[in-house]
Every structure is written in structure tokens, then in C-alpha cells.
Design the sequence.
């Protein structure tokens, strides 16, 4: 193998154009759900004006590149200098420790300390980066439909059952095809699971088989899909763990209650406009608590960089209080920065509904359960989410009964744990 | 089987570009004469073959062998050096079923679901593809106004990328799509076609036919046009009915082209991926999950990838393809001895 | 030769319409709709605003709600056809909506608020092409650069494909040597291995060669196409060996035979391969997406994928940029379709 590699390398010499990093270059791999790429570019342009020695290159990519291709690059000891990543914990061995490099480590600990554990190897005190955006899962109700049906929008302590009942009533009276929908995502599904008392984490820190809490909600969920309370469409619309959102149905007024999350706010604001009134309602309650899931995307520095000093400078700049504030206000993202949150934000939107919804999500952060806060920093979260989505959607499509799906979920997770050799 | 070859068509257009090329080729000639003296005329064959085989070897053959090596290793590491040898474990895992009739009893039930789906897809898609391209070729072979226009109409989708094909049809078949809109006009409620098992399957078959039919139609059309017309005239003289002429003259003489088409369609059908992946993502449930998507997702597109298992599955797929192709060619050769293939 | 066809359905056109004529025209017109309709729909959709794209029932052409500037209000207001409580109809501007009641004003008499139930009003719509779907990506991303990369990859790969494949085809058709059939079979066997299946090993080779994030990493793996070798070889088999023997008598070198005699005679097949290669390389998506992650190296196909986020896909940009990337293919189609369609017919695929 080594021999072939050297031969190949020799063959390559003739073809190589210079791909070596220039001194002072900092490459950021970034994906966008909306306008955040443009806002970041703007902020970086300002940075480069202040720091003429550092050339920051923003590589906008699709999310699939971050999810599928970046891990391969990292494993080859390659990759950009900074990346916006969602799978933070499982790849934490590749992140650079910024602690000795940043200007003021204490500032980072105070303001981003809560999520620092999501993106560093277990047991270290590494500063890997910061969350560009905190997402909080929660529900949206089409208030106009509720008003037209004369049904009261369930209040703060309403349970999943209350919402299901109310949504069904509204859908029936207004001739709307879908009472409820929940994104095709293991992360979203985990919110209600947790509120039904689920715990994915076993005693040894590895995934435990699905417990009664998970099974209780999954049974309810699949039942709702079968009787039409939950939209079946979004769950059966792909195989495997592909993410699918039901946002379009909500935007069209075809959906009464939509369980998604804070990131939908800018999307709804532009697409719904004044067509109907919508409100964010936090997460419904289960027997155990009223939690949703949290998560988000983090900006991390990568160990294999040739220019750690410059990388730290860029990170310091982007983590600055005023910059985080501006970034969040312009993108309508919930920031992670404690100081910014404490002082409050003035989201740059003239849509009062969006303002209200964002504030609702900021408030919902306080009702997150401890486990919900812990899961984003758990090595196996994505493994569990992936298995959940794959199998629950098969149950939803009627390909297998739920108890078999549960057995399969446990088996899939066990196989992945075994494959990883950890 | 001589289709009228538009030989001069290319040369006039090519003449202008050829001038600098001619110069370069001339310059290369002197050193190559020396090479030829060293290698001899026979050796020059190796020389001409070399560049293609080198690139082919590095970027096609080598990955194929590495893939084989992968199928013998375990773990999630990506680079072969970091992986552990596990022998035939991955194959054993694929074949680990308690009941070979029921894919749900297998450890890798998704793999077998994909195998089953692919088999159905291949049977239906190959049959319909051949049927549709044959009908289209027969129609285009008639005396038509603006024939080259019609030929082009059916060929057009071949030029689109699979991603665009998937995207176009997704935009038609989805809930807010054109099809529902059209039906809405007739008073039907909107329906999510791609979330219905049978419609999604039909869409996968239909869209793949839509995208590739033009290519095969042209191959068949070339065959039809090469059939000597005096055969038909003789048949007419004997009072043969057109249907009989079709079975007795057209079909046998079209056999060589038809065989090429069948083999190509079959290979492409087994490998179906891109356009269906964009269109349905394998859903609803797993009803349009095909083998290549399984391999792609297992080996590449999940957080905890298993390249070993994916490689084992791909080796199995390759073997099935080779066997199918050999059967096809064998059948073709025995059924058609008189055909003037080549 | 079309008289042959006329013969098969020989009653055609002699005594009025034969059933085969009807079938033919249904098939052709149906084909026209099914083959072109979807693409037209895509182009139409690409001009819709994000809100209009999500809308049902969709409209064939892009529409937006008409707005009017009303005295006393800062922003333009949406116009609606409203049925008033007394049953009369009027065009009103909506000031705000509270629940199911819309507060509206007559643009002529802005002082007076009229309350209308929202089921009693429909928006006044006007056609508007969302050209920002096109212009925004052009300003945001380095379109010229991506275009250049796409052109570079397409042209280079096609040239290398033509040279390398034709040389191989020459060797495989005009020389007798041991292992010839084996080499041919080996090349054809590649048809059995799609890219998505050998992606991981191919990736490790490309990265070991240092071709990662390099346009050559996109070009090289694609150029040794089995189809190309096959088409050219089949065509070259029809060139009489006597021509080559005569050239050898005249002391022509093998290289001269290749480019002076064989290549010119293979021109139609080369043209077909060139067109196909251009289309294939232009459309390549999966592999470039994996190899290229630096923006200065993006091809157009990779460039348009950046609008797929984790939680949201910006379809309006994707559709618009898809239409842009289709333009060259459509041009190839319009100007070279004669080459393609007659070329394939005349080429070795028989």
C-alpha cells in the first residue's frame, strides 16, 4: 500500500497546483439556512479591514458537505481552519484548543461556558469554539385557524394530548388536512420523548435500550399518524435518516399545529407575511416535564490549521459581544452569548409576530430539562436520532409494527456502537 | 447493417480546429518514431493503450480492488491503513437471516429491502423502457413531417443532469406541484403522490424512463433504418401482413441493437440512484430505497459510516451485474446466429 | 429510407387516416408535452418568490399581491377584493388583521376603517417575475469564477477524453495482440461499477495524490470512459485495414497512421463523444461536490448547492441557478442536436 501511495504521489507531482495554505489565510467552511452567510461575510469584511494581515476566506458550502465530506477531510488530517458544524461532540478530537490562543479565556468561559462541553472531548477544559446559534425546539400554532374555529389556543401547561385534541377540533371545523406535524428528525422527536420521561443515556455513558418513556410517546406518535392527527406525509417522505420539514404545509395554512423550532421564525416571517396569524407556543408537556430539545450550530477551530494565531484572532472577533449581538439580530438567530442574552436583543425585523415568537423561544430556554441540555454534548446523540428516524418512519409508513421498530432501533444503535469500537 | 454514415459532417467543422492540433501532432511524431523503433509495430499497441489504461487503472481499477479490500475490514475508520481485518464478517452480516424468505428477519433488513425493491424496479423499468423506446423508434421511423425535430424532442431529457431531472419531477409531483394543480382544476383534492408506495414506485420507474428513453430510442432507430427495404418489398409481394412482417423481419434484424439496449438498460436500472434519490429520497418508508442508495448511505452519508459493509454490498451488486450481463449476452448469441453483429 | 417505414404502415395517408396515424400523432404530441412541459414548469417556477413557491394551488405564472400606497400609512398596503357587509364589492387596502377580522380602508377615502371578515376578501394579484432569484446569487457568489471552473473542467476533460479514448480504441481495433479481448472486457466491466459505489476508495486515492481541492481531481477520474472507448472502437472497426497497410508501405509511422488516417475518418464518432463528454462533465455533481470545498474552485453545479442548508433549503435560488446551468445544455441541444441524433445513429452503437 505504501509503495502504491508513493507511486501515486510521484504521479501527482506533475499535476499539483499549489494548494498549500498561504501564511495569514484563514478558511471558514460555512453552510447557510438563510441570510447568515451574507451577514457573516459582511462582518468578516470589517474584520479584514481592521486586520490587514489576515485574509479570511469564506467557503459557503451545502450542509451535506459539512455532514458528509468534512468528516472525511478531518480524518485525513485536512480541512478548513474554521468550520460551522452541528455534529460537534463526536468529532471533538479534531477541534483546536483555543484556550492558550484567545485574548481572554475567562470571557469565553463566562459567556459560552454553558455549551463548551458540547464541543470538546470528554473531561477536558478545551475551548473549541462557540455556538453561532442556539436552536430550541417548540411548537407553532396557526392562530387564525384557531380563531376561525372558535377554539382557544391551549395555554402554557397544555399537554401533548391537549394540543392533539384542540388541533383535531380546529382541523375538523376548518377543513384543514393536517391537525399536527412534527419534523422528520430524531432531534425533534426526542423533545416529547424526554417529556414522557425518556433517558437515552445508559449507566456506562453509552446508549441504553429505549425505555418506557420513549416507548410511551412513540406509541402515541405512531397512533396519531395512523389516525391522521399527525401528518404522515413528512415522516414517510424519505428513507433513512434524511431530515424533512413540514414548514410548507404550515406556511400554506394547511396545518394547525407544527412542532419544529426557533429556526423557522425568519422563514415564516418572510413566507407567511400577513396571510395569517401564527404564534410560537413552546413545547407541550408530557407526564415528566415540558421540555423541548436544544441544539444548534457551532463555529469551531480545527486542529490541522497552519495558522492557529490568526484563527484565534478571527474567533475572538466573531465571539465579541457586539459582533454576536449584531449577527444574531440580523439573522434572527438565538445567540449563545450570556452577556448578549442578559442585555436583550433587538431583532431586526418589522414583523411583530416574529419578534413575539423569538421572545417566546428565548423564554422557552428556561423550561429545558437537564437531559435536554446534556444531549447535544453526548457522543451518541446523532446515532440515536438516526436510528429513531429511520425506524419510526418505517412504522409510520406501515412497513413494520412499532414494537418491531423499537427492537430494530435498539439493534441498529448497538451495531453502530459495536462498529465504532469504542 | 450499414446506417448511412454522415462522415463528411464532422470533418468540415473539424478542419478549422485541426490546424494547431496537426502542428502539435507533427511535433510529437519524431520522438514517437524513435519509440516505435524500440517497441516495434506490435509494441505500439501498448503505447496507444497506455494513457487510457493508466488513468483507468488508477481511478477505476484500483478503487475497485481497494473496495474489495474494504469489504474484508471492519470499523468506522475511513482509510484502509487504519482499518482492522475481519475476513468475511461483513458478508456474513449481510447474509445473516433467520428466514431467507422474509427480509425483515435479517440483521441488515434494509439491505434486503433494497435488494427486493431493486429487483422489482429492474423488471418493470427494463420492460417498459424497451417497450417505450421501441414504440417511439417505430413511430420516428415512419414518414414524418419534421422528423429531426421529433427525434430531438424525445432525446432532450438525456442531456439533463440526474439532479435536475429529480428536481423537475419533484416540482411536479409534490403536494404544491403541477399535477395536483391540474387535477385541482377538475375538482380533485391535492394528493401527495410521492408519499404513496405505489405512486412513488411508479414515479421512480416513469422518471427514469423519461430521462433515458431518448438515448435508447436513437440506438433502436439506427437499427430500424439499417433494415434493407427490399426485404419489406419482397414480403409485400408475398402478401405478408404488416404485423407478421414486424415479427418476421423487423424484430429479428433489430436484434443486435435490441441486445445492446437491453444490456445497457439493465445495467443502468440495477444502478439506479441519483434521480430517484433527489425525487423521493427512498421514501415513502423504504419503498423506493434502491441498492446504490443503501450503499451510498451506509458507506458515506451517515455520521457513523460503515465502509466495510457498504463495500461488501457493492461487491455483491457488481457480481450480480456481471452474471446478468453474461446471461443476456449468452441468450442473445444463441438466439441470433445469423445476425450480422459487427 | 423512410419509405421503408411507410411500407410497414403502408396504408398511411392513402385513404384518409389509418389508426396508426392517430397513434403516431397522439404519441408525438403527448411526447412533446411530457418531454418539454416539465422543463417549462421549472423555468416558470424559478421566477416565483419563496412564498409563491410554497403556495397551493400554484399558479402557472408568478403572481404577487398588488400593493398600494395609501395616504397616512408609511408602507404600501396589500390590496384585496372585499365583499362588504352590505353585500357590495370594493377594492380595499388592508391596514392590519386581528384574528379573523381584517381592518381595511378604501384607498380613495383613507380616513375610514372598514371591518371585513377574512373569508370575505381575496387578494388582488398581479404578475411579477422574482428576478431577484437570479440577480441575488449573481452578486453573492462569484458567478464568473464558477463558470470559468465549469468551462475549464468540461473542456479539459473532453479533450483528454477524446485523445486518450481514441488512442485506446485505435489500439483495440487495429492491432492484434494478446490480451486484447481481456483489455476490452476490463474496460467494459467498468460499466458495472457506478461512482457512488467506489466513492470512498476513490476519495482516498484522490487525496493520496494530493488532488483534493484541485480541479484535476475532478477531471482525471472521469476521462477514461468505457462508453467512449466502446463507441470509437466500434467505429474504427469499420475503417478498412487496407488503408493502414498501404500507409505502412509508405513508411508512415504508427503515430501518423493514428492521427492522419484513423482520426479524421473517425470524426463523426469523435463528434458524438465530444458532445456527450461536454454534457456529462458539465452536469457532474456528486463527485465535484466531494472533491471541491473551496469557493475559488467551485463549478456551477457545486455553487448552486450552497443553498441547501441544514434546516432550510432556499429553493428559489436553487431553481433559478438550475435554470442558469441548463442554458449551455439547451444551447448544445439546439445547435448540435443534428450531430447528436444522426451521429449516434451512424456510430458504432449497432
Sequence:
Amino acid at each position: 500500500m505504501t509503495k502504491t501511495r508513493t507511486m501515486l504521489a510521484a504521479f501527482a507531482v506533475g499535476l499539483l497546483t499549489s494548494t498549500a495554505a498561504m501564511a495569514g489565510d484563514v478558511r471558514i467552511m460555512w453552510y447557510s439556512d438563510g441570510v447568515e452567510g451574507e451577514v457573516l461575510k459582511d462582518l468578516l469584511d470589517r474584520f479584514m479591514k481592521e486586520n490587514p494581515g489576515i485574509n479570511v476566506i469564506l467557503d459557503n458550502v451545502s450542509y451535506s458537505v459539512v455532514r458528509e465530506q468534512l468528516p472525511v477531510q478531518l480524518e485525513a488530517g485536512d480541512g478548513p481552519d474554521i468550520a460551522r458544524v452541528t455534529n460537534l461532540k463526536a468529532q471533538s478530537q479534531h477541534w483546536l484548543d483555543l484556550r492558550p490562543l484567545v485574548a481572554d479565556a475567562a470571557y469565553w468561559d463566562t459567556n459560552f461556558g454553558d455549551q463548551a462541553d458540547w464541543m470538546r472531548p470528554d473531561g477536558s477544559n478545551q475551548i473549541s469554539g462557540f455556538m453561532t446559534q442556539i436552536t430550541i425546539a417548540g411548537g407553532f400554532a396557526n392562530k387564525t385557524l384557531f380563531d376561525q374555529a372558535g377554539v382557544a389556543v391551549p395555554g402554557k401547561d397544555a399537554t401533548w394530548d391537549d394540543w392533539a385534541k384542540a388541533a383535531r377540533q380546529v382541523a375538523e371545523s376548518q377543513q384543514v388536512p393536517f391537525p399536527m406535524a412534527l419534523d422528520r428528525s430524531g432531534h425533534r422527536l426526542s423533545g416529547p420523548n424526554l417529556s414522557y420521561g425518556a433517558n437515552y443515556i445508559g449507566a456506562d455513558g453509552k446508549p441504553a435500550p429505549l425505555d418506557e418513556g420513549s416507548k410511551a410517546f412513540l406509541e402515541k406518535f405512531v397512533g396519531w399518524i395512523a389516525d391522521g392527527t399527525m401528518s404522515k406525509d413528512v415522516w414517510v417522505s424519505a428513507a433513512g435518516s434524511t431530515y424533512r420539514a413540514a414548514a410548507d404545509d404550515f406556511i400554506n395554512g394547511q396545518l394547525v399545529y407544527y412542532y419544529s423550532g426557533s429556526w423557522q421564525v425568519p422563514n415564516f416571517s418572510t413566507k407567511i407575511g400577513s396571510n395569517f396569524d401564527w404564534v410560537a407556543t413552546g413545547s407541550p408537556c408530557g407526564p415528566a416535564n415540558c421540555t423541548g430539545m436544544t441544539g444548534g450550530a457551532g463555529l469551531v477551530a480545527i486542529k490541522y490549521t497552519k495558522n492557529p494565531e490568526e484563527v484565534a484572532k478571527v474567533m475572538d472577533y466573531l465571539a465579541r459581544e457586539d459582533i454576536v449581538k449584531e449577527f444574531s439580530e440580523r439573522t434572527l438567530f438565538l445567540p449563545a452569548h450570556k452577556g448578549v442574552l442578559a442585555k436583550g436583543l433587538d431583532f431586526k425585523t418589522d414583523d411583530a409576530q416574529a419578534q413575539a415568537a423569538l421572545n417566546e423561544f428565548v423564554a422557552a430556554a428556561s423550561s429545558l430539562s437537564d437531559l435536554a441540555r446534556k444531549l447535544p454534548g453526548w457522543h451518541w446523540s446523532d446515532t440515536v436520532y438516526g436510528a429513531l428516524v429511520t425506524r419510526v418512519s418505517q412504522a409510520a409508513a406501515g412497513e413494520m409494527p412499532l414494537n418491531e421498530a423499537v427492537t430494530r432501533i435498539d439493534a441498529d444503535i448497538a451495531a453502530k456502537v459495536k462498529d465504532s469500537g469504542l | 447493417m450499414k446506417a448511412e454514415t454522415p462522415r463528411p459532417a464532422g470533418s468540415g467543422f473539424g478542419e478549422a480546429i485541426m490546424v494547431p492540433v496537426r502542428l502539435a501532432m507533427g511535433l510529437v511524431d519524431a520522438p514517437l518514431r524513435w519509440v516505435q523503433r524500440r517497441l516495434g509495430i506490435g509494441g505500439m499497441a501498448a503505447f496507444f493503450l497506455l494513457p487510457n489504461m493508466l488513468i483507468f487503472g488508477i481511478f477505476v481499477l484500483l478503487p475497485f480492488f481497494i473496495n474489495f479490500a474494504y469489504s474484508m475490514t471492519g470499523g468506522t475508520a475511513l482509510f484502509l491503513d487504519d482499518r482492522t481485518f475481519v475476513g468475511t464478517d461483513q458478508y456474513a452480516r449481510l447474509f445473516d437471516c433467520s428466514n431467507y424468505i422474509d427480509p425483515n428477519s435479517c440483521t441488515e433488513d434494509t439491505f434486503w429491502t433494497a435488494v427486493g425493491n431493486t429487483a422489482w424496479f429492474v423488471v418493470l423499468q427494463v420492460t417498459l423502457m424497451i417497450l417505450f423506446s421501441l414504440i417511439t423508434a417505430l413511430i420516428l421511423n415512419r414518414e414524418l413531417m419534421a422528423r429531426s425535430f421529433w427525434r430531438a424532442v424525445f432525446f432532450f431529457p438525456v442531456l439533463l443532469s440526474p439532479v435536475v431531472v429529480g428536481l423537475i419531477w419533484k416540482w411536479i409531483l409534490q403536494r404544491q406541484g403541477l399535477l395536483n394543480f391540474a387535477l385541482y382544476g377538475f375538482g380533485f383534492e391535492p394528493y401527495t403522490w410521492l408519499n404513496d408506495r405505489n405512486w412513488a414506485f411508479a414515479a421512480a420507474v416513469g422518471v427514469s424512463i423519461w430521462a433515458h428513453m431518448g438515448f435508447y430510442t436513437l440506438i433502436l432507430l439506427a437499427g430500424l433504418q439499417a433494415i434493407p427495404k427490399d426485404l419489406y418489398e419482397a414480403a409485400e409481394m408475398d402478401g405478408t401482413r404488416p404485423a407478421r412482417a414486424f415479427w418476421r423481419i423487423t424484430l429479428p434484424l433489430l436484434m443486435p441493437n435490441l441486445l445492446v439496449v437491453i444490456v445497457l438498460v439493465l445495467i443502468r436500472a440495477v444502478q439506479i440512484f441519483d434521480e430517484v434519490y433527489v425525487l423521493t429520497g427512498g421514501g415513502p418508508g423504504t419503498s423506493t430505497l434502491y441498492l446504490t442508495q443503501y450503499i451510498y448511505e451506509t458507506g458515506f452519508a451517515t455520521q457513523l459510516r460503515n465502509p466495510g459493509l457498504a463495500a461488501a454490498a457493492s461487491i455483491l451488486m457488481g457480481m450480480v451485474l456481471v452474471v446478468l450481463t453474461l446471461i443476456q449476452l449468452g441468450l442473445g448469441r444463441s438466439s441470433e446466429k445469423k445476425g450480422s453483429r459487427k | 429510407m423512410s419509405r421503408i417505414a411507410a411500407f410497414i404502415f403502408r396504408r398511411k395517408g392513402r385513404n384518409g387516416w389509418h389508426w396508426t396515424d392517430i397513434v403516431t400523432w397522439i404519441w408525438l404530441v403527448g411526447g412533446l408535452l411530457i418531454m418539454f412541459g416539465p422543463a417549462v414548469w421549472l423555468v416558470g417556477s424559478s421566477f416565483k418568490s419563496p412564498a409563491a413557491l410554497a403556495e397551493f394551488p400554484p399558479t402557472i405564472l408568478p403572481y404577487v399581491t398588488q400593493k398600494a400606497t395609501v395616504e397616512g400609512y408609511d408602507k404600501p398596503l396589500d390590496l384585496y377584493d372585499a365583499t362588504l357587509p352590505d353585500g357590495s364589492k370594493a377594492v380595499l387596502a388592508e391596514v392590519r388583521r386581528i384574528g379573523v377580522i381584517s381592518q381595511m380602508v378604501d384607498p380613495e377615502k383613507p380616513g375610514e376603517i372598514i371591518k371585513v371578515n377574512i373569508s370575505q376578501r381575496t387578494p388582488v394579484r398581479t404578475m411579477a417575475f422574482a428576478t431577484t432569484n437570479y440577480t441575488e446569487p449573481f452578486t453573492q457568489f462569484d458567478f464568473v469564477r464558477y463558470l470559468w471552473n465549469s468551462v475549464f473542467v468540461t473542456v479539459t476533460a473532453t479533450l483528454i477524453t477524446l485523445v486518450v479514448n481514441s488512442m485506446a480504441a485505435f489500439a483495440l481495433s487495429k492491432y492484434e495482440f494478446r490480451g486484447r479481448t481481456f483489455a476490452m472486457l476490463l474496460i467494459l466491466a467498468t460499466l458495472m461499477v457506478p461512482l457512488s459505489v467506489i466513492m470512498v476508495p476513490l476519495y482516498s486515492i484522490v487525496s493520496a495524490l494530493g488532488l483534493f481541492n484541485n480541479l484535476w481531481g475532478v477531471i482525471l477520474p472521469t476521462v477514461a470512459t468505457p462508453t467512449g472507448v466502446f463507441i470509437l472502437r466500434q467505429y474504427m472497426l469499420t475503417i478498412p485495414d487496407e488503408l493502414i497497410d498501404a500507409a505502412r508501405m509508405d513508411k508512415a509511422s504508427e503515430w501518423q497512421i493514428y492521427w492522419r488516417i484513423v482520426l479524421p475518418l473517425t470524426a463523426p464518432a469523435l463528434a458524438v463523444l465530444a458532445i456527450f463528454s461536454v454534457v456529462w462533465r458539465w452536469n457532474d455533481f456528486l463527485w465535484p461536490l466531494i472533491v471541491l470545498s473551496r469557493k475559488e474552485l467551485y463549478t456551477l453545479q457545486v455553487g448552486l448547492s450552497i443553498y441547501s442548508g441544514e434546516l432550510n433549503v432556499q429553493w428559489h435560488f436553487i431553481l433559478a441557478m438550475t435554470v442558469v446551468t441548463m442554458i449551455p445544455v439547451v444551447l448544445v441541444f439546439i445547435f448540435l442536436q443534428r450531430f447528436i441524433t444522426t451521429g449516434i445513429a451512424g456510430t458504432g452503437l449497432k
Q: What stands out?
A: Residues 1-55 of chain B form one domain.
